[in-house]
Give the backbone structure.
Amino acid sequence: MKNSFRYIQETMLRSSLNRAQLNSGIVFECRSTSNTYHGKETHFFIQLGDLGGFQRLDRNKKLAFFLHGWNDEGSKDWVHEMLFTWTRFQPDYTVCVVDWGNLSQNDYKSASMSIFDVGLTVAAIVEFLENMYPKYMSRSNVTIAGYSLGAHAAGYAGSVLKGQIDQIIGLDPAGPLFTLPAVVSTDYRLDASDAKFVQVLHTSGGTLGVGVKSGHADFYPNGGTAPQRNCNSFIQLQDMQNTNPIACSHSTAAIFFKHSMNPDYAFVGYQCDSYWSYSRGLCSNNRNGRFGIHSQKMAHGDFYFDTLSQKPYVQSSSSRRRRRKPSYKIIFG
C-alpha cells in the first residue's frame, strides 16, 4: 500500500518539477540594518526584471532568504517580525523575505506543487546576483531558511544551485505529500545534499511535519512531535497563532527560530539516539549542537532538548551559568 501511495505522490511531484518555471509574481522584501545605502532606506523590494531593486543591495553583506509556508504571505506581521529580528542579531546579512503568497494561498495540493517554481525563482535571483556582482556575491555566502512547504522550496533552490550555498535552515518541513502517507524520494523534499550545511528543526514530526531525518543536524525539541510544551494547554494556546495543538506545534518551529536569533537564548541540543534516552539522562555527556543562525555548522547528528512552556522557551545564558554548581579547591595544610 505504501508503495502505491509513494508512486502517486512522486508522480505528482515529478510532473510539477518538470514543469517548474520562473515566477515574476514572487516578491523579495529585503532589509539591512544600515540606516541608509546610497542615500536610500535599506528596506527595499526585488523582483525578476526589476534592476533597480538589485542595485540597492549592499554588496559587502552576506545574503539570507526566508520562505514562509502554505496559506501565508510575506506581508504578515509575524514574517516582518522575523525579518527585523534576523537583521538585528545578524547585522552582517541582508535578509529577504520571499513572498510567494500568489502561489501559497491555493489549496494545499496546488501549493505543494508550486514549491519548485519558488525554489527555481530563488535560485535564479542568486545566480543573477553572482553574474551582476561577480567580485562580491557568491552562493557560498547565502543562507536560506524555510518554514513548512517553504523548507522544501528552499531545498529545491539549493539543489538547483548544486548544493553549493552555505546553509539551509528547515523549520518543520511539511509532511503531507512528502513523508505522508509515504516517504518520497529526496529529489522532491529537503535533504542534506541541498547545501553545505542543512539544519532542521522538528516540532510536529509525523503529522504536519516530516517524520524523517532531513539534514546534517536535526533538532528535536521535546521529542520533535506534537504537542509542543507551549501548545499543551488552552491558556497557552490563547497566546498562539493556532489553537489546534498540532497546528500550534507546527508553527512553533518558526517561533523557536525567531527566539533563537537572540544570542542570549541559545537553543542547544544533545546528540542522542532517541528522546527516550535523552529524557532519562543517558546523553548528558554527549556532544551538543546549537540550532539557528548562530550555529557553528560543525555538529552533525540528531540533537534533543527540552523547552519551557512560555517565552523565551529556553533559559538565558546567564541563568544557565548561575545554575552551575560552584567548584571548591581543597587545600591541605
Remarks:
- Residues 35-40, 324-333 have pLDDT under 50 and may be disordered.
- Residues 138 and 248 are 36 Å apart (CA to CA).
- The two ends are 76 Å apart (CA to CA).
- The first helix runs from residue 2 to 18.
